[in-house]
Amino acid sequence: MKKLTKENTRHLKRAEKRNAVNTTNTQTEIKHTPLPWKTVDGMIQSEKINIWGNWCICEMPKRDEMPEARRECEANVAFIVKCVNSHDALVEALRKAHQQLVGDAAWLQSANQGQVALGSLKIAEEIEQILVKVSSN
User: Fold this and answer.
1) H-helix or E-strand spanning residue 120
2) pTM over 0.90
């Protein structure tokens, strides 16, 4: 395992104080900058200070010579912020939908509605696969 520099150690301690880092044994998992995020003049910023002690998450390249590319970058930044800020709510809604579909399938099966129950279980399985993907990072 690589030894941390003094600067990295300082940043890690700062993050631990904010509960942004979960340390277990020899592994350190650094979480993303706290939400919500926003766009400010081509930058993605957090309303909370990140591990580096500022608000900037990333900045899009300046492409003044290509106005179309700049507009595309601005649209990408806005889309990233929209997706990130809605991620947790969407995952929670999927979990609730999954739970409801599984419960409905059990009830439908007991009511001799096997085909409808299978349809509910198929959708529940698709949702479960999505939840595994979004929870793996």
Assistant:
1) helix 114-135
2) no
